[in-house]
Amino acid sequence: MTQKQIEKAKDELNFKYYGDEVRIPANEKQPWTKKDKVLMEELSCRDMINSMLIYGSNTDEGSWAFNKYLASYYEGNVWHKALLTKERVLELVAEQNADFAKATVHHNVYEDSEGCTYNSCDWGD
């Protein structure tokens, strides 16, 4: 999935559950379904994989970056319970790698006030 596709899917899910925040009282908002929670977690995982790819991190299973950034999606952590399996995370990595092969990364497109530089990605969509 390209970044635009990920953002569109996230927006649709957020609208489904949070919709018109002003007019829907908190007690009338529907709870997230397990299926939609898993989908949102997959989209978040894809975001992380994209970031890793754009900045040149190794997405191979067992790499330092994989264990640091992707393991929490299937192992969980103190802040949230894991919703994905390791196998699913590996599938997402493979899918994002395939889509990323068609993308173009632009390095050092922005520098912040502390001197950190940022990359951007053109997905061709």
Overall 3D geometry?
A: globular
Rg from C-alpha positions?
Answer: 17 Å
Low-confidence stretches: none
Structural class: mainly alpha
Largest sheet: 2 strands, antiparallel
How do the strands and helices of this protein lay out in sequence?
Elements: H1 3-18, H2 34-54, H3 64-75, H4 86-100, E1 104-111, E2 117-122
Antiparallel strand pairs: 1-2
Provide an overview of this structure.
- With 125 residues, the protein is mostly helical.
- It has one domain.
- It is built from four helices and two strands.
- It has a two-stranded antiparallel sheet.
- Helix 1 runs antiparallel to helix 2.
- The longest helix has 21 residues.
- The radius of gyration is 17 Å and the shape is globular.
- The protein starts with a helix and ends with a strand.
- The mean pLDDT is 90.
List keywords for this structure.
125 residues; 2 strands; mainly alpha; two-stranded antiparallel ribbon; single chain; 51% helix
Summarize the structure.
The chain is mainly alpha-helical. It has one domain (3-122). It contains four helices and two strands; from the N terminus they run ααααββ.
